[in-house]
Fold this protein.
Amino acid sequence: LSELEAQTVIENSLLQIFSIYYNVAQLTEDSKNISESLNVSKQRLLRANYGFEYGQNTKLQVLNAEVDVNNDSINLINAKQQLANTKRDLNVVLGNVITSEFNVETSIDFKLDVDQNDLINKMKSNNVRLLQLDKNLMINKFIIKANKSGYLPSIGLTGAYGWNKGNNNAASFVAVSTNTGLSGGLNLSWNLFDGGSTATRVNNAKI
């Protein structure tokens, strides 16, 4: 179970890296699109000024074009700032110390020739979350068996070995005496009533 939990951490880290990488790619494309939109707005403002100078447009059209240029300029600044922040996040999750500017590949090829049944089978066999649940089921089955042991008697075995040597005085009948002994015991205990605590533990483990 600990190995599966470690695998989960690794997969989540990879998922975070993938997500930030694609965010960088998306923001890169967004910045390009906003930059192109800003160029179009500048060209429209230039044409509006020409039209106003020659009496073909009103001042309102020029002001509207200026508003569009300002909005696109602000959007471009925000997009570039967000892109810089996301690139910094990518460096953080990768553990890189990169001070120079870098770009990511924005061209993505999707794998479309995937067999659905094969994908579902792989999902069931490789999904770490499902594997963790299966492992927890196995562990809880052992816990149920362990808790059911409260219904059974307990057997204890004891054993002891003794050795004793005595040095007596010269007046004694035996100058040196040595005694050895071996003893053993077997005990059986059975808790006939525990207030229902064993049944509660078993039921909790089943739940």
About this structure: The helical segments are 2-53, 59-94, 116-126, 128-148, 197-206. The chain has a mean pLDDT of 88. The radius of gyration is 40 Å. The chain is about 65% helix and 15% strand.
